[in-house]
Write a structure and sequence with these properties.
By secondary structure, the protein is of the alpha+beta class. The protein has five helices and five strands; from the N terminus they run E-H-H-H-H-E-E-E-E-H.
Length: about 130
């Protein structure tokens, strides 16, 4: 009962995006959306849109389950480094300084707390039946 959403080549540095991702790691989806809505950092708006996409992916995988009953939470959020655009900036005395424009890849995994509890109960019931 998991759903994944990915966002590739976001033109902000991974370090800045991790600061926002750390705010919502392990939180329930409703609380995470509220945090991201009022967070002033640039990466918050992108993460909010990605989280809504992950929720939508979960709904399409579990059409029979209700979103309110599922009690979704952010199981995993990863921010990895993306490709780096390398540029040169003129410096004094004929030199050049290298500018590295970093990007990142974000992956969010959303899961239902109720589903994990049910599967654990089913495993225990199956072991006692055998």
């Amino acid at each position: 009962m998991e759903a994944v959403a990915k966002l590739n080549n976001v033109p902000t540095s991974p370090r800045k995006m991790r600061m926002v991702a750390d705010l919502i790691r392990g939180e329930r989806v409703n609380k995470a959306l509220n945090i991201l809505k009022y967070e002033p950092k640039e990466g918050a708006a992108r993460l909010e849109k990605l989280l809504l996409s992950a929720i939508s992916n979960w709904q399409s995988k579990n059409e029979d389950a209700r979103l309110e009953d599922a009690d979704l939470y952010i199981k995993e959020i990863r921010v990895d480094g993306g490709r780096i655009l390398k540029r040169l900036r003129p410096a004094p005395q004929g030199r050049a300084h290298r500018i590295r424009k970093r990007s990142n890849h974000v992956t969010i995994v959303v899961a239902a707390k109720n589903a994990t509890e049910v599967t654990a109960e089913e495993v225990v019931n199956n072991e006692t039946d055998n």
